[in-house]
Design brief:
Chain A: GO terms for molecular function: ATP binding; ATP hydrolysis activity. The complex is a heterodimer of chains A (285) and B (270). Chain A has 285 residues and is of the alpha/beta class. Chain A is built from seven helices and ten strands. With 270 residues, chain B is mostly helical. The chains are: A alpha/beta (285), B mainly alpha (270).
Chain lengths: 285, 270
């Protein structure tokens, strides 16, 4: 199971120490939120797990084995931007992973093999609420739809660890709530560990099982270069969320709300439309 | 209403666009008429009727000596050289640009030499090319290739390097090898830039072509212009210049259309 162990991890850029002696064990199927002020190294930390950056000292173990030095299909990623390929259609984006994994020369499959991958990709797109958009290009999708696409694309590889770098930070609140519900469902259904960098504490508490806050303990100007960030808080959400099990959180139960097709007139708008929303508005007014 | 807010509609835009051309032609006609009134044998600004007659002779009457239609023979000769030159340039620029754009090792090895070569004034190399490669077609094509390739290669390397790092990492998490990153992620995304780059290099390519033809050729658009220069044959030079310009414009429009057709996503992403 995809447990991650981080031992005495340091990251330095020249003289600048960014992360200082981080040790951490992440349980399989956890949903970890990394929070902290800007520039505290949480994205750097995520990139080291991804393999995009290397540690200066210390090691990261995935299932007891040291991580490969470069990104690979065992770790999926969704960034805030640039996560999908603008020159491929929605379907092409989702098919890209399986196609490149199996066709090492051309990067494309043909005939029956292609149809099989396409069927799988369509099922995945339906799963994230993008059915019907297969032939569009990413530029024709809204921001929320693009992030759904990025999730679908990453999940096609069945990664053991899914890394999210402020994936929903640029989305409108309404859209964000929908995609949170989707994210929660995917985490419940798919066997993977999720690590998410976020600025939004509310998002962290809504989704995760554990919140880790990075902070620089010493932050006076003359100390900044020589002291990096460490883990300032390590909060286990209580009562615990467990992947694949019911919880007592009201918010976790609306499993259908992330699918725009079931939302009727609510899709794409936050305006009051007659029932619950209207009441909230009148109560506020 | 402020002038900055005045937006011409389609018809007005078209008329405004045509206006400078009309003025240009009118200026020519008036100037030509004035000079011819003074001296009927004036050769500098031939009358439109003379131009029309010359075009007719060049394009539709076989040459008495060779039996060729001069305009078409020249056009064919020049466009063949241009196509070879630009074809070789485009292919090599694509390979160099792609490799230097995505592989740090190749960038370390190739970027300095490409930058250096792109600074060599190509026309200064023309004598060397004539001496080494002879006066035939090869030296003319080589001049275009040398003049155009380094700049296109640098442009494509920049385009490839400008792709967000996130996309490359994403491709790695989708199990792509360096080869697959090159051919499925980077190459398709710099192809639109390749076409744009080619459009921009069309002008320089024609410059090198005409320069090479002016010195040594037996057919070609540049050759003809410099040949008839001795006789002050403005009635040939003007139509040839206009024809070269028209060819460039048509190629440019063609490439632009091709880009939109082949890469519809490249318009949306802007």
């Amino acid at each position: 199971m995809s447990g991650i162990e981080i031992r005495n991890l340091w990251k330095e850029y020249g003289d600048q120490i960014v992360l200082e002696n981080i040790s951490l064990t992440i349980a399989p199927r956890a949903f970890v939120a990394l929070v902290g002020p800007s520039g505290c190294g949480k994205t750097t930390f995520l990139r080291m797990i991804l393999g995009q950056e290397s540690a200066t000292r210390g090691e990261i173990l995935l299932d007891g084995k040291p991580l490969p030095k470069e990104p690979g299909p065992d770790r999926g990623v969704v960034y805030q931007r640039y996560s999908v390929f603008p020159h491929m259609t929605v379907l092409g984006n989702v098919m890209a992973g399986p196609e490149m994994r199996t066709a090492r020369i051309l990067g494309r499959r043909f005939g029956a093999a292609r149809r099989a991958i396409a069927d799988e990709a369509r099922a995945m797109l339906a799963e994230v609420g993008l059915a019907g958009s297969e032939d569009k290009y990413p530029a024709q999708l809204s921001g929320g739809m693009q992030q759904r696409l990025a999730l679908a694309q990453a999940l096609m590889m069945k990664p053991r660890v899914l890394l999210l770098d402020e994936p929903f930070g640029a989305l409108d609140p309404g859209i964000r709530a929908d995609i949170h519900a989707l994210m929660r469902r995917l985490w419940n259904e798919i066997e993977m560990t999720v690590i998410m960098v976020t600025h939004d504490l509310r998002e962290a508490f809504t989704l995760s099982t554990r919140i880790i806050a990075f902070e620089r303990r010493r932050d006076r100007p003359e100390e900044q270069a020589r002291y990096g960030a460490t883990i300032a808080q390590d909060i286990l959400i209580w009562p615990p969320r467990v992947a694949g099990r019911r919880t007592m959180y009201e918010i976790d139960l609306h499993s259908l709300r992330d699918d725009p097709t079931t939302m009727g007139q609510f899709a794409g708008t936050t305006r009051p439309t007659g029932d619950g929303h209207a009441q909230t508005y009148s109560a506020l007014g | 209403m402020r002038l900055v807010n005045v937006r011409p509609d389609r018809t007005v835009r078209l008329m405004l666009g045509l206006l400078p051309f009309v003025l240009l032609v009118m200026a020519y006609v008036i100037g030509s008429a004035a000079r011819l009134a003074e001296n009927p044998n004036d050769k500098l600004l031939p009358a439109l009727s003379t131009l029309a007659q010359t075009i007719n002779t060049l394009a539709f009457v076989p040459d008495a000596r060779t039996g060729n239609y001069i305009l078409w023979t020249d056009t064919l000769a020049s466009l063949t050289r241009l196509a070879w030159g630009l074809g070789i340039s485009t292919a090599s620029a694509l390979v160099i640009g792609l490799v230097t754009g995505i592989l740090p090792v190749a960038r370390a090895a190739l970027a300095p030499v490409v930058t250096f070569v792109s600074m060599v004034p190509p026309l200064a190399l023309l004598p060397i090319l004539f001496i080494v490669l002879g006066l035939g077609e090869v030296s003319k094509i080589a001049l275009i290739v040398i003049g155009v390739t380094p700049i296109m290669a640098r442009d494509l390397a920049l385009a490839a390097a400008a792709l967000p790092r996130e996309q490359i990492v994403k491709a790695e998490t989708l199990s792509a090898s360096s080869w697959l990153i090159a051919c499925r992620v980077v190459l398709p995304q710099i192809l639109p830039r390749l076409i744009d780059s080619l459009r921009l290099q069309l002008g320089p390519a024609f410059l090198f072509l005409i320069a090479a033809e002016a010195i040594s050729a037996d057919a070609g658009l540049g050759y003809r212009i410099f040949l008839v220069r001795r006789y002050l044959a403005m009635d040939v030079i003007f139509p040839y210049v206009a024809w070269i310009t028209l060819l460039s414009v048509l190629i440019d429009i063609g490439l632009s259309t091709l880009r939109r057709r082949l890469f519809p996503w490249s318009e949306m992403a802007r």
